[in-house]
Structures are given as C-alpha cells and as structure tokens.
Amino acid sequence: MKGDLFSSEHMVQPATAPGMIVENAKCIRYAVSGEMLARQGAMVAYRGNLQFERKGQGLGGMLKRAVTGEGLPLMSVRGQGEAWFAHEAQNVFVVEVDPGDQFTVNGRNVLCFDASLSYRIETVKGAGIAGGGLFNSVFSGHGRLGLVCEGNPLVIPVSPQYPVYVDTDAVVGWTAGLGTSLHRSQSLGSMLRGGSGEAVQLMLQGEGYVVVRPSEVTPQKAQQH
Fold first, then answer.
1. Model confidence over 168-180: pLDDT tens digits?
2. Buried (b) or exposed (e) across 110-138, using 16+ Cβ within 10 A?
3. CA-CA distance, 48 to 69, in Å (whole number)?
4. Measured CA distances, 41 to 66, 85, 87, 94, 104 (Å)
5. How much is the pTM?
C-alpha cells in the first residue's frame, strides 16, 4: 500500500530520542529504552520488543483518584520500542518536572510518566472531599508527566496578590507549593433560593500555576473513569 494514500499529518515519523512526545492532540508516543509507567489500558499501539506488566495494587502501585478516592491502576512498560497512549480521545499535554519542583495532580488525569519520577499520595489540605477528593498524587524528581483532560487545558498563573478560585470538578493539578482551601462564593440567601450552581471553589494561594480543564466532571462520570 502506498504511503501517499494517507495525509502526511497522520503519518508517524521515526523517533529521534527516547522519551515521550505529543504525537497529536489525543495521543502521546513514548520511545521506550528501559522502563516507563502508564495507566493500565491506555496503550493503543506499540512496536518493538516491549513487555507490559501490571503494577501491584498497594499504595506504591496506584494513584488515588480525586472525587471518588478510588485507585488508578498502573502498568510498567519495559524494553526497547515505541508505544502510543491515549484515553477516551481526551486531549493530552506534558508537564516537565525539574529537580526541586513538585506537581500535584488528580489521578484521573494521569496517562503516563517517566520512571525517573516518584510520587506519593497526599490529602488536599484544607479541601476535604469537596475540594476535588481527599487524595491527590504529588510527583517529584526529574522527568516528564503525560496528562489528559477534556479539551485544551488552561494554565493560570497564581501570585500572592492574585489567588485563583477553581471549580472543584474542573481542577486538574497545580504546582505543589500553593496553599489550598475552600472558598464559598455564594451567600446563604442565594443558596436557599436554589443557588447559582457555583457555591464552593478551591482557592489556591502563593506563587505557581494551576491547570484547569475547560469542562466540569460530574461525580457519576468520574466514577466511570
């Protein structure tokens, strides 16, 4: 079959270096030379000599999903080759984590990441269950973290003078140095009259960035993920 039957924008080009790249708006390609980690079931294609192994279900092998607090199972990918990862045609993007930096993220948004990154489970301070769930995963070390969200993400700077208020169903993650607390933007009288539907937000204060999806995930949909 001739290659010119297909549009050039859809043709995969050879990998030039190990690691992850954004293949297109919906898919991340990872050129594996050793080991990497990914969400179970996220591999859509691969070539080369790769082995996929389910990670254990203890705290060391799962990410806690915000909203539901359920575990997001992971798999390790080892060997030499290329693999493509996607999740429900959601948009993909990459976060660079440098030494000394930390990024806290909702587990439902994790697609894949470098094995050089480490992560731990932490509660969202001051937020509780209403602040996107009891648990988020904090990534540290040096490497790349591939994430998904519905639509193109919004990256909003946060400064001491300008805290950012985020819908708890729309927040993806933030730089871990930011302080978090719940903020009520609706008066009691408005709530008694039925409310605006935007009663409580997650307030982020300090110096850093917050990533927001341009859609709200309902608890029912989050459970399906």
1. 888 899 998 899 8
2. bbbbbeebebebeebeebeeebbbbbbbe
3. 36
4. 19, 9, 8, 19, 23
5. 0.81
